[in-house]
Amino acid sequence: MSSVPPNQPEQEAKLTSPSDEVTSTRAANSQKQQFPMTVIALDGRVDLASASERLRWPELRRYGYGSVYSVDDQRVYLFRFGAIAVEGSPRIDEGTLRVVQNAVGRSVLPDTIESYSVLVDPARAGDPRIGWDQVVVPERSHELMSAVALLLGQSAALERYEKAAQPIIEEALSLSRSLARNGTVPRANPAQVRLIGRLTSIRLELASLFYLLDRPEETWDDPQVAKLHDALFNNLELQIRHQAMLQKFALIENVTDVVIATRQNIVSNRLEWAIVILIVLEIVMAALGKA
To answer: Strands 129-130 and 134-137, how do they pair?
Structure first.
């Protein structure tokens, strides 16, 4: 007698053959797309309005922080804080760099160039993944690519300030060493004034040109873009690097202020002694005259 009730249908197990699994894997892989995002910093901020008038490329989109252009079937991003990003190429064409430099009046900084791998995988819908040098996104949309380009551009621009900080630190260190070794400071000169001006300018740029505290507007409209932005933002350590640069320049500015204030005190003391000596001489001469 059968143990299965007559009115209950038997369930047949569906088996998947190895060939079906291979076909499924190939189909999934065929939908994936991998390409580089390459960025490089300029030596200063960019006037986007002026640049858009001089660049003859078709402008695809404009954001508060930059513009996106179509150049030879590639997207080229130009950012206000001084960086260029090219989507889909492991290098940035010399002709493209030359056109941008002429349009914005800035020079590129070759030491800041960096390339990041972008993998488009539809299976990652709603769940972008960030690696050491790769980001995985579900689609190649304007919003997702702009978020990647913006953050990589900020990373390159921050590197510009990180490299510029070293010679400034050496200048401030030389002043402080002179004060510690000799108890005196070098004579005040225009170089010290220029140093303070550079420090003030850089601190203002770091504070005003980087969109590190507030997300871009498009992240508020798309949770997927917001998730990608936050993950890549943390992976590149932008907040930590930004704060470190502000602290470095604040410290250098404090050291320079101390050195200049010490110099001013020394000069002031010398003037006071000169006045005292002149008064004493005048008294002595008056006394001798009466004698």
So the answer is: antiparallel
pLDDT in tens, 34-87: 999 999 999 988 999 999 899 989 999 988 889 999 998 899 999 999 999 999
Q: At what angle do helices 190-209 and 142-182 cross, to 10 degrees?
A: 150
Strand partners, 129: 136
Residue 42: what residue type?
Answer: L
User: Which residues, other chains included, contact 217 with Cβ-Cβ below 8 Å and sequence gap of 6+?
Assistant: 63, 64
**Tally of helices (H runs) and strands (E runs) in the chain:** 8, 8
Contacts of 242 (CB under 8 A, 6+ apart): 158, 206, 210, 212
Sheet holding 66-71, edge to edge: 59-62, 66-71, 74-79, 83-87, 33-42, 108-120, 134-137, 129-130
- Cβ–Cβ < 8 Å for 206, 242: yes
